[in-house]
Amino acid sequence: MEQMSKKTIKTHLVTLTLRELRALWSQRWTPLVAGLTLLLQALLIAAIAISDQPRYAFASLEDFFYIAFGSSIILTLLLAMRSFSEDYAQGTWLQINLSSLSSLHITTSKILAIVLSTFLVQLVAAPFPLLLVQKGHLSTAHLLTGYFGLVLVQCATTAIGTFFSSLTARQLLSLALSSTLLIALLALWMLSAILSPELASIATTLSFYEGNFHGFMAGRLVLSEVTYYVSISTLFISATTLRLRSRRLL
């Protein structure tokens, strides 16, 4: 199982990812939550656009990525909660368990399908930031950096949601656990007001938003911020892989 050629592994991985994509979008749940997320995002963007307070295009683009950050987290969590929980509940896990792919490739294919879906949904809202870049004479690099940051956030959030989904057949429990962890990571920076300067700096650095997404919003590619989201993705992908390996041995 673990000794397939690299070409075969890539072929199987692409095939499995495409199958996961089809499975995601063949259900009513995915278009429903994607549509509601886009509607919420559109309403918030409209609120910015019709505001009486004058704003520079740069600030409006930052606001867009702030809104897209939140909507990406909501959508990825709602999609990721079904990734393995649904397989356990419906009994399709047996087919996956007998697959020739490794646990890592199974995990990766599910995460890729969710990240691709979330990113494509975000691209639907792309005309607004494109208009800001054109009319506000902003750098295209700012736009690309912001979207790159969104992809990293989606990967990290999906990895967290997929891990908790691999623990239980109950989708709502999976969603509750992953949401609790993310809320804790988002709220870490609030502790800086009551901690010593050294601990406050650590809390801000570990915060899912405050200490690690501002650079992407402003169009800056900061290595520490990239490392943060990649590290979270790697940690939870590894944890999910270990969980699947232990389950496949049962």
Describe the structure.
The chain is mostly helical and 250 residues long. The protein has one domain. Helices cover 76% and strands 0% of the residues. It has 12 helices and no strands. The longest helix is centred in the middle third of the chain and has 26 residues. It is globular and about 60 Å long. The relative contact order is 0.13. The mean pLDDT is 87.
Count of folded domains: 1
Point out poorly predicted stretches.
none
Measured on Cα atoms, how large is the radius of gyration? 19 Å
Helix content: over 70%
Task: Label the structural class.
Answer: mainly alpha
Largest sheet: none
Distance between the termini: 17 Å
N-to-C order of helices and strands: HHHHHHHHHHHH
> Using DSSP, what is the number of strands?
0
Strand content: under 5%
Short description:
The protein has 250 residues and is an all-alpha fold. It is built from twelve helices and no strands. It is globular, with a radius of gyration of 19 Å.
Structural features:
250 residues, mainly alpha, 12 helices, globular
Topology:
Blueprint lengths: L5 H20 L3 H21 L7 H24 L4 H6 L2 H5 L5 H22 L2 H9 L4 H26 L5 H17 L9 H10 L7 H4 L5 H26 L2
